[in-house]
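Data card: per-record layout.
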Amino acid sequence: MAKKIYVGNMSYNTSEEELRDLFAQYGTVLSANIIIDRETRRPKGFGFVEMEDDSAAIAAISQLDGQAFGGRNLRVNEAIAKPRPSYNNRY
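The structure for this 91-residue chain is written out next.
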């Protein structure tokens, strides 16, 4: 089962390819996405990586949390799904 990982405190110059390569050391990466600000079109400094195998994801989290990458110490942990607000019940 795939596991989604939050990656914070990234350098604003980090590319999705670099992020994918960093996590690929631990297993198969299904996706790597850096969040972009809608207004400025610049990276927000965090993103998400989805890994195919849970054990590989756990290994990546334990090894990369706090590690320097791109001149900054990464914050890496399991992503927690945020409930989306429902706009259907407004009235």
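Known properties of this structure: Strands lie at 3-8, 29-36, 43-51, 68-69, 72-73, 75-78. The helical segments are 16-24, 54-64.

See the next section for split statistics.
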